Amino acid sequence: MPLFERSVKIREQVFGREHIEVAIGYNNLASIHEPMGQYAKALPLHERALAMFEKLLGENHPSVATSLNNQAQVLRALGQYPKAIALTWRALSIREKVFGAHHPDVAATLNNLAMLHRALNEFKKALAYAQRGLAINEKTRGSSHPEVATNLNNIARIYDLMRDPAKALPLHPRALAIREDKQGREHPDIARSLNAVADTNTALGRHEKIVPLRVRAQRIARLRNGPDALWRAQHGLLAAHAREGRRELGIFYAKQAVNTIQGLRTRIVGMERGTRGAFLQDKMQVYCALADLLIEQGRLSEARQVLNLLKEEEFFDFIRLISANDSRIRAIKFTAFEQPWHVRMQQQMDALARIGAELAALERKARLGVTDAEKARLSTLASERAAAGARLGAFHRELETAFGTARKPDTASADAILRELRKTLAALGAGTVAIHYVTAENRLNLLLTTAATQIARSVAVERRNLEQKIEFFRVALRNPSISAEPMARELHKLLIAPLAADLTQAKARTLMLALDGSLRYISFAALHEGSGYLIERYDLALYTEVARENLQRRPVANATIAGLGVARKIEDFEALPAVKAELESIVKHGAAGLMRGDLRLDQQFSVASLKDALAKKHPLVHIASHFVFRPGNESTSFLLLGDGDKLSLSRIREDKLDFRHVDLVTLSACETALGGGRNAQGAEVEGLGTLVQKQGAKGVIATLWPVADASTGLLMQNFYSLRMGGKLNKASALKQTQLALLRGQVTIDGGAGNATQRGLTTAPGAVAKPGGTFVHPYYWAPFILMGNWL
After folding, report:
1. pTM for the complete prediction?
2. Percent of residues, the chain, with pLDDT higher than 90
């Protein structure tokens, strides 16, 4: 690395900063950083090289195509697939134009496209690109070229993901044989091949072959400093050993995998939030698999530690507003039994890394010629490499024996984290419990924590089946003309019933729900146990890592409020007549209203007035308007302001609107709790409620689907009335308000209730007639409380 950095500096001094040779130097240096997982260093180098190539050579030069491809490779590693596809398509266009449709460089670009579409689960597209690339390479380079091996591995991986491993199996040995013959048995690509072969053997149930393949992949990945192949090998060893009943050993390897990924995360801390989130997407399975196995083994406090690491990204996004400290640079802890074995493994792996680094440097130098002393050193290093590999193989066999007779693990460090959570629950009052949900492929784990204990339960259910039920439930909840109760009962059996006896034993009154995946987008309040809804039994709040520092903070007495809203018709957005009454019943003006504060309606509601309200540090902020959420696009997902402006999610983030002083933000609009879809960087777009909470709000009331104007206005008036007395906390006040609608105690007086929604669409059957009620969950269940519920 120092030699490459020195080379770039020399090029800059000799040629100046704007020269082709300098661009080549940037490209070469970036290509060293990328396989080491140093993406934050590689990406800007590639960007600088590309800009220079375009300026000096023109936008359609082959060097521009090469630079585009290289940059796309880094973006692929970071999970920014759509952006990488765009760059790769541009590279393909240039290469086809310059070289024709059957050139090896075209084949390489097609293979890159195949890998990107494979990552997006677009398997038919991926297979077509990969097969076209293979045909070109076999014709132009011959059937034993390393690029042919790359094509073969890619096609095999696509077949694996299409659940057709029988087609993948014969491709792997051919690819591996080519690579070993042409690149050597220790080349970084060999580790990738070995992991791919192991994946196929796993799918075919040929389990006896898997551990040797993963062990060899792990050794090569560490020897050649390939952290991506390393964590995949370690994760594979988790699955292999757990399947054979060696669960303690599987946990040990899974912890190694998590720590490898954590190391990679520390290398991208300076990159933008979307990039960090996208990077984690294909690695979440490692954390979840480890947590799943720990829960199965009864090692509950360790499982919570793993889940904390997984959720740290969102917590860091919050604390960085007030601190430059990076709390994420942490590793999973090993038990007292595991720690000595971990130390020994690290010593062996570090020895391999030192040998590999010196070998790589000498091998690069050998292309230009080496001295006799350096030749001798190469020979010595080859012997040391073989000896180190043999020692590591023996160590793995020793591990199997030791962990086969392992005692119950000492979980003291993880227990400290559990004690912290229990202390928080105790401080929040009797009957407060936390429930963490962990979704595995064929099982749903439920982790219940009380001030006194922690309990794990599990339900056998395939992830796909669970997600299908969730989607059916969401559809039913959004349509007041049909009953959501049948699906509400089915999901209650999966999500709550396994813990029913435990919740009774704990005398639970408030459930803090830490939700996983698509569970975040359903209303737990509307789950039905047969005799009633869940909201009739418990106060509910969503728990996130963002909220953990604020959970015990009590609300300010006699708090003031900023009420902002839109009642008039604007463009395609219908008028919301209930908003005016809603705000005037809450914000004191003359003799009316509940609380002192500022009211900004229609034209008075602007970005400036919102910033002014935040600057005045009102503890309560209430926003009633239309909100449009477009999955995958935070630039066109927006809150409609009263002056006609559209405040997008991206503007809220970029302007760094500061909600840190706010005890409660109420987002009385459509789908403000909803997130989803991938943006151009491959990261999931957050909902308005999540974003506001990340920017400091202690508690947030948000919505899961388009809400009706009339019922929402009445619900909000009731909620604040109950809060004003000071006897009910946020969760209890929201519960009692929802129950009032459910039990028909809130009705439309006089004229017909309007069916206008605080968005662009109207739900079927949403019109409430004079004297009509709002008993269907459509009206009361979309409102969820996130974070501090006191």
Report:
1. 0.72
2. 46
